[in-house]
Amino acid sequence: MNQQFNLTQVALELAQSTLHEHSFDQLLATVERVIPSDASALLALQGEQLKPLAIKGLMPDSLGRRFKIAEHPRLEAICKSTLALQFAHDCPLPDPYDGLLLAKTGDIPVHACLGLPLYDKNALLGVLTFDSLNANAFNSISADTLNTLQTLCSAHFKTALELAHYKQHAQHSSALVQELNREALTRDGGEIIGQSPLMQTLKNDIKLVAASNFSVLILGETGVGKELVARNIHLNSARKDQPLIHLNCASLPENLAESEFFGHSKGAFTGALNSRQGKFQLADGGTLFLDEIGELPLAMQSKLLRVLQSGEIQTVGEDTPKYVNVRVVAATNRNLKEEVAQGRFRADLYHRLSVYPITVPPLSKREHDITLLAGYFIEQTARKLGIKQLKLSPEAQALLNQYSWPGNVRELEHVISRSALKAKQSQWQNPIITITSEHCDLTPSALQPPIAASQSTTNTLINQPLKQAVESLQYNVITEQLKKHNYNWSAAARVLELDRANLVRLAKRLGIEVKKTL
Known about the structure:
Blueprint: H1 2-16, H2 23-31, E1 39-46, E2 49-56, E3 67-68, H3 73-80, E4 85-87, E5 112-120, E6 123-132, H4 143-167, H5 174-179, H6 182-185, H7 197-210, E7 216-219, H8 226-235, E8 244-248, H9 257-262, H10 279-282, E9 287-291, H11 298-310, E10 312-313, E11 322-323, E12 327-332, H12 336-341, H13 347-353, E13 356-359, H14 369-385, E14 389-392, H15 394-402, H16 408-426, E15 432-435, H17 455-462, H18 466-484, H19 489-496, H20 500-510
Parallel strand pairs: 7-12, 7-13, 8-9, 9-12, 14-15
Antiparallel strand pairs: 1-2, 1-6, 2-3, 4-5, 5-6, 10-11
């Protein structure tokens, strides 16, 4: 009777939470009413791996991990089942969450494990998993209850996935992703990991501009992931089935730059033994990513401008022009406005490229994303090094979050790789390798909270009347966000989680110039 009552409540709560912003967390929390456990997770199927969407009782970095089904026998068994699957308490199959439970360090001892595969007709959507340190925790749950719960959760999960798909403007389903040329586009990982407000703004900007045919200028420090942003713009565009061609402008010899861009005919110059297509011909119908555009010689800048204006290219050694349909996405870590002022970059090319500029935030400004990225890189590194289970100690996790990351995401990836090697060497006899703070060789001078207010600013605010201190802080925060977003009020309002009109009114009251920047 109690189980029937719980199922009725589950059905009502799932129906009410369908449009909830955190519907995946709601789904997991609701099911926990019927299947209480020490650790649970909702994972979505993405190709040949499972991606956690919501967790309870697991280490925070679990959300950044991707579980390759073939490497985790229990998850594989759940995915192959059509009904709820309970593992015997003495099942010899390794648990994918060994070392990840908040309630228990190290391997999970004899325990109860239950999995619910979630289907849409015959298509697997994902799985729900439950672990309890009580070996008999799930024995009293009837098969009928589990079957009904599986049906309810499958229907809700399907609806939640579809709504998330529409809300995020055509986010690719796993079936579509498998049809793309993933080898070229995702060789280093194609997913943008991050849930911070700045990254949510970035993802929204990517999806917004991807739907257009505008040229895009990606700005950001070295190592923030500008190439990854370019890939996602392409993958979310109407050109996604066409090629994405990469050209690093910094590595171009000036005498061969024109040939690299537009190709050459046989005999066009000494050493041209055969005809060769340029990057624009190869990218015809697709996207051309020009990395380090700030390094492009001035002579080539004028020729690139002509292509952007008319789509016309001139192959070296040929008289007849050709026309191409190419979208250009460029990236640089330079301040191109300053380069224009110094005469090192053409103003007309800058304005043509920066129809929609996107700034990728440095890792030091991405609050809470360091833990997720660490989990992602740990899973990748474990696979590369052949480590069955690799985890991050709480002390190491805290250390990573205290570091300012001058080398950004690229530096974090390298630190995880080096730390994993050191941990493997010192713990080779252990089934679970743990990265501790001793394995992380971080520069001591950079060990400071990356998003902390300076002491002088804090002292200044403390010595002011409360109303004046609050207004000073508001003035500084709003001004800083406006500068970061090139005085795009809508973008600044999204980051500050304010309505745009309310932000403008607040700015006027604080004395921030509005008319010139709107």
